[in-house]
């Protein structure tokens, strides 16, 4: 599941200087959406690139698709076209936030009527959960809304559990939170969690930490195993790939690479000091151009395909993962080792790694240079008994040897 962080920055936050501070902090932290009043949409666009949702209050928000339609009609747009929003949200100063009483019959709801208006754009509902009737209102709104924002007055799990169970698959469910800790709980509730959180906080650290919680919630944890080294053989020269990331890697981190997609060897980042070269804590010397590297979506790519801007999966020795952006790929001809391994399942897998003391794998006794590897050593591996086609797992018989 893809998680998202929305940051609330409407006039309830304060004046424009206060709102701008929140928006800037959200942009710098890597939040996904900003929720503002319609008059601020253009201002947000000037500050940076981010998805913008706008509360519909007294007037209409000019939406991207409306602008496209206008351009198709007469080749021009009106002055309001500058206030483009990616989504429109109803409920503020309405029934959703209890400014207007809920009708006994939801068929007469002004908020729901607005949501039902024709239009090919993203629509959102904002509902404060003030009681059971507001839970029911949120459930009804979710039938029409792409995004349903629910905000508890005294933040508790029970209403969120109810809504996840009832409408979690109908809409993008967004839980209102005031801290990273609350966001973590929202993402974990019922082991499914909300799709997103709407953070209401002025603290830049809280915004940054909430984005970190989002990233952690989206990451997989891998069950790494060990395989026995059968052979380490000089294999001549090949085109070797170094992956230089835009991130600093930790001492226990590396990447999963291999000649066979079903068995990927853990190769450490070059974080260790060496008498031969300085450490390169952003680099993994990953092997020959034909080899696979695991990506954050659970797929694989050939090392030869990688280029600046791609994402690769970084993994630590406990199987915790994160993503990193490729900054540069260095391909040079270098002498190689062919390393043959046997898994606990009795499967034989292989890979090519450069014949150099600086390339290290995770052995039973800790980091070990490939130049010191011997038959009988146990090294860390990610093994899955599945074939791959264009990097995607498939159920078919493929022989790799």
Architecture overview:
The chain has helices at residues 16-29, 41-47, 64-74, 110-115, 132-142, 157-167, 180-188, 204-218; strands spanning 4-8, 33-37, 51-55, 62-63, 84-85, 87-90, 122-129, 147-152, 172-177, 196-199, 225-245, 253-260, 263-268, 283-288, 292-294, 300-302, 311-316, 321-342, 348-354, 360-363, 366-369, 378-383, 387-389, 392-394. Residues 59-83 have low confidence and may be disordered. With 401 residues, the protein is of the alpha/beta class.
Rg from Cα: 26 Å
Give the helix level as a range of percent.
10-25%
Strand residue content:
35-45%
**Which sheet architecture does the biggest sheet show?**
8 strands, parallel, barrel
Give the low-confidence spans.
Answer: 59-83
Specify the overall morphology. elongated
Q: Please tally the helical runs, counting DSSP H or I stretches of 4 or more residues.
A: 8
Q: Which class of secondary structure composition applies to the elements?
A: alpha/beta
For the largest sheet, list the strands in their spatial order.
1-2-3-6-7-8-9-10
Task: Please report the distance between the alpha carbons of the first and last residues.
Answer: 35 Å
In total, the number of strands is 24
Report the average pLDDT across residues.
87
């Amino acid at each position: 599941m893809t998680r998202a962080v929305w940051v609330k920055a409407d006039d309830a936050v304060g004046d424009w200087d206060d709102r701008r501070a929140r928006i800037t902090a959200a942009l710098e932290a890597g939040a996904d959406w900003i929720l503002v009043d319609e008059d601020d949409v253009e201002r947000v666009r000037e500050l940076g690139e981010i998805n913008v949702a706008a509360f519909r209050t007294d007037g209409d928000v000019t939406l991207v698709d409306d602008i496209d339609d206008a351009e198709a009609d007469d080749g021009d747009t009106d002055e309001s076209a500058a206030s483009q929003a990616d989504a429109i949200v109803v409920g503020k100063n309405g029934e959703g936030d209890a400014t207007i009483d809920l009708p006994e019959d939801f068929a007469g709801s002004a908020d729901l009527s607005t949501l039902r208006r024709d239009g090919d754009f993203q629509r959102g509902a904002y509902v404060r959960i003030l009681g059971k009737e507001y839970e029911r209102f949120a459930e009804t709104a979710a039938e029409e809304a792409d995004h349903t924002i629910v905000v508890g007055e005294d933040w508790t799990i029970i209403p969120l559990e109810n809504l996840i169970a009832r409408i979690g698959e109908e809409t993008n469910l967004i839980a209102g939170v005031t801290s990273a800790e609350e966001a973590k709980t929202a993402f974990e509730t019922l082991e499914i969690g909300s799709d997103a959180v709407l953070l209401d906080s002025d603290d830049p650290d809280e915004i940054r930490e909430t984005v970190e919680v989002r990233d952690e919630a989206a990451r997989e944890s891998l069950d790494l195993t060990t395989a026995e080294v059968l052979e380490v053989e000089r294999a001549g020269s090949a085109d070797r790939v170094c992956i230089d990331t835009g991130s600093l890697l930790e001492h226990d981190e590396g990447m999963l690479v291999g000649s066979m997609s079903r068995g990927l060897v853990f190769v450490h980042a070059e974080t260790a000091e060496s008498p031969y070269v300085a450490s390169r804590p952003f680099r993994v010397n990953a092997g020959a151009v034909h080899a696979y590297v695991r990506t954050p979506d659970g797929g694989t790519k050939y090392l030869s395909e990688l280029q600046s801007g791609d994402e690769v999966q970084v993994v630590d020795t406990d199987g915790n993962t994160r993503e990193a952006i490729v900054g540069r790929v260095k391909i040079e001809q270098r002498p190689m080792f062919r390393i043959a391994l046997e898994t606990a399942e009795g499967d034989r897998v292989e890979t090519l790694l450069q014949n150099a003391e600086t390339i290290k794998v995770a052995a039973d006794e800790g980091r070990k240079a490939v130049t010191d590897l011997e038959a009988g050593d146990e090294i860390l591996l990610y093994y899955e008994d599945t074939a791959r086609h264009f990097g995607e797992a498939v159920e078919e018989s493929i022989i790799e040897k």
